[in-house]
Every structure is written in structure tokens, then in C-alpha cells.
Amino acid sequence: MSKGIVLLAAGGTGGHVFPAEALAFKLKERGYSVHLVTDSRAERYAGKFPAEEIHVVPSATIGSKNPVAVARSLWTLWSGMRAAKKLIQRLKPVIVVGFGGYPTVPPLLAATRLGVASMLHEQNAVMGRANKALAPRVKAIAGGFLPESGDAFSDKTVATGNPVRPAILAAAEQPYHPSLSGEPFHLVVFGGSQGAQYFSKAMPTAISLLDEELRARLRVTQQVRPEDMEMVRGCVAQLQMGADIAPFFNDMAERLAKAHLVICRSGASTVSEISVIGRPAILVPYPHALDHDQAANAAALAATGGAKVITQSELSPERIASILSHVMNDPEKLSHMAAAAKLAGKPDAANLLADMVEAIAAGKTVSEFKRTRA
């Protein structure tokens, strides 16, 4: 018999859905039923998400200054809140947990108005706009990189870390094996939904600048936008190198486990997953992020020595080639970085977040929950 329903709300990107998925697995193990509210973008993740049902409610972001567009967005949000209210009244969840992104706004607003226990999980070191708007209304906030002091909402914040998926925890069981001279060197490159274009252009040029001996060792996994696939495949064929190129990899956890080096953006989930698995990384924060959250996320891992942070403006193809030339000939350095990254990982974040969800659902305050942890 189920302990009750937990309603998770997440925007339709991997950065929002993956932590929600990790929590969902833990809650299912503990006897809860899980439902997910999201948008249509999350369909590609739906096959693995352990939810009894996935619900889509109307939602919109207010990013335009056009009065007509603003009015349309407000109407959509109002419609979404009404739909979410009906959903919550039907499901009667013990708690509603938001993971950021504008699709979380209607269900969290509806939950707080109905008096249903509610909390947020913020993946980044800087709170996103949707979560910031909802933060005053909810009972608690779990933080991936948020501080527990010195912040406007620190009195209701618990630094849980970012929960990672079971596939990442399984990958973390594989120790880092350095690539020695003459051996294959596995390089994983990805940029997220907004950031892959830069790598699509920079990486083939960088690889072409490598000595032939190093290029022959490379085994590249690279996430590429559909519109860039033809260009990158052409470059790979011309360079006659081993590479897997795709817009999305369902087995990214396994590929990260095999990686000798990762070059990527620094979204919160990405930084957390690299840390838990323990792989050296070159982090390139997305330069157009509104709140510079990726730069703050990257700094957290760089502080431990597990990653090197380089801004996109400073990362030319020539510099990428220089970095690859150095690290491919210095396996000891990469081994040290891998160990430092592993020390920064929080593999138990999903358990801690599940503990917090249960406590808030049971009516405990954040202060009471913190005392139980002490």
C-alpha cells in the first residue's frame, strides 16, 4: 500500500528532469507513488522516469516586454494554475516538490494556495527565476550548490547536493583508469541544449591541429545539435578518427565512466554527475546565462582541483589543442584531477533529499529537520 502520492514538478530540460528522476526512484523505494508535472519537452526522458503518470499543464514564461505577449503569458499561467489545482485536488498529494523551470510555477502556486506542503530543489549556485519567484511561498528549499547561510532564503534552505540518477551511481563504481602512451584516449564533449553549437565548431578544428599520433589515440563522444550533424560528420570523416556524434546519448552515464577527460558546459546536473563519477573536466560556462549560474557551479568544482574553468571567449581551437596535447601526455595529472572531482561528489544527495521531502510532508520545519541531521 502506497504511503501517499508525491507530485514532482520540473521544467522539460535534463537539468531539471534528471534530479527529479533520481528523487522519484528513492521515493518509490520508500513506498510512495510518484506523479510528474512537466511540459512537452520532457517526452524524451519520459521512458525512464518512474512516474505513475506524467501530466502536462499549460505554462509560460514572461520574458517579453510586449504587452500582448505578457497578457498571453499571464492567461496561460492562470489556465495552468487552474488545471494544476484540479490535478492536486484529484491526486491529493502529501507534498508538491518543484525542480525549477517555468512549468513548475502553476503546480507550486496551486499547492501553496491549497495549503498542500510544498518545497523546491534548486540545482544551481544561483537561484533560477522560477524558483526565486516561488521561494517566499514554499516551506523549504533544498540546494544543490546553494549556501545555508548569508542568503535571503537561507533560513529555509538545506544543502542536500544534487541527486543523480541510478545510472550515474552505477557509473561511479568504475574507477578511473588513465590512458597511457599509445592507448586509446576517450574524450567526451557536450554542451547542453543551448551550448552545443560552440563545441560543434571548435572541436573539429582543435582536433585537426593535434599531432597525428595523438589524433589516432582519440575516441570522441560529442553531443551535436541536429542542424550541425552534417558539418561535424564531414569533419570527422576528413580527419579519419574514431567518433560517436549524436544530438542526444541515452547511455551518457556509461560514456562518462569511460572518459579520460570531459569538456562541457557547467550546468548543475552536469557538474554534480561528473563529481560523483569522478572524472577530470574542462568546464566552459555558458556565457549567455542570465544569472551566470554556470560560472558559479563551475567554481565549486574547480575549487577542489577536479576541473579547470575556462571562459568561452578564452577557449580557442588552438588552446583546446594545446590542452589536449598536454593532458594526453600527462596521465598522472588527469588521475589527480579525477580523484579531486570524486571527493567533491555527493552520491547520497538523493537519499538526503528524500529524507527532507518526507520530513516536510510530515509537517516538520526546516529547523527541526536540520536538528535531526546534526
From TrEMBL:
Q: Please provide the Gene Ontology terms (biological process) for this protein.
A: carbohydrate metabolic process; cell division; cell wall organization; peptidoglycan biosynthetic process; regulation of cell shape
| Single GO term (MF) | undecaprenyldiphospho-muramoylpentapeptide beta-N-acetylglucosaminyltransferase activity
Where does this protein reside within or beyond the cell? Cell membrane
| Keyword check for Cell wall biogenesis/degradation | yes
UniProt domain Glycosyl transferase family 28 C-terminal: residue ranges: 187-352
Positions binding UDP-N-acetyl-alpha-D-glucosamine in this chain are 13-15, 124, 165, 193, 294
Listed under catalytic activity are: di-trans,octa-cis-undecaprenyl diphospho-N-acetyl-alpha-D-muramoyl-L-alanyl-D-glutamyl-meso-2,6-diaminopimeloyl-D-alanyl-D-alanine + UDP-N-acetyl-alpha-D-glucosamine = di-trans,octa-cis-undecaprenyl diphospho-[N-acetyl-alpha-D-glucosaminyl-(1->4)]-N-acetyl-alpha-D-muramoyl-L-alanyl-D-glutamyl-meso-2,6-diaminopimeloyl-D-alanyl-D-alanine + UDP + H(+)
HAMAP family listed in its UniProt record: MurG
Q: What is this protein's record name? A: UDP-N-acetylglucosamine--N-acetylmuramyl-(pentapeptide) pyrophosphoryl-undecaprenol N-acetylglucosamine transferase
Q: Which gene encodes it?
A: murG
